[in-house]
Amino acid sequence: MPECTFHRGVETSVRCVECERPICPRDFVPTPVGYKCPDCARPLPSARRVVKARQLALAALAAVGVGAVGGLLIMMLAYGSWLLSIALGLLTGEAARRASGGHRQGAVVAVAAAGAAIGIALSGAGLLSALIGAAAAATSVSSGRW
Ligand SMILES: [Zn+2]
Ligand SMILES: [Zn+2]
Fold it and tell me: How many A from CA of 43 to the centre of ligand 2?
């Protein structure tokens, strides 16, 4: 029988499903795919779950862009309609979330809200519309209705 990787002199028939090193009952960690050694069982900081600065920048760009263009349309079509500001905010939040790679983290929410506010304010739709849009954008990112 092979000797445990972590304990000299301890024989074991269990191997880590990932690195295939022999591990004894003192070390192995049950996982959905089988027993793993403590090294492989340790959760890695997932790149997918942690939002990167570049993704945040993309989210901000998307939010400002959609907010500004949408705000202009609202100004031309409905002269700063509140209802359309909410719709625009939701759209802006969704654009920011997609641009960030589908994240729903606080940072993306903040960036989406700020981007929507800046974009809508830039379009001249007014401070109230900007605030409404920002709130809707934050809701859109965090609630995940879409
Ligand atoms: Zn292992
Ligand atoms: Zn061991």
Answer: 20
Same domain, 92 and 110: yes
List alpha helices for 14-143, DSSP H.
Answer: 38-41, 53-78, 82-99, 106-122, 127-143
Neighbours of ion ligand 1 (CB under 5 A): 16, 18-19, 37, 40
User: Quick one: how far is CA 54 from the chain centroid?
Assistant: 12
pTM recorded for the entire structure: 0.61
d(CA 54, CA 88): 24
- Both structure tokens of 134: 């920002």
The domain tally of the chain equals 2
Q: What's the pLDDT at 146?
A: 43
Our measurement of the distance from residue 113's CA atom to the centroid of its chain's CA atoms, rounded to an integer in Å, reads 14
Same domain, 11 and 73: no
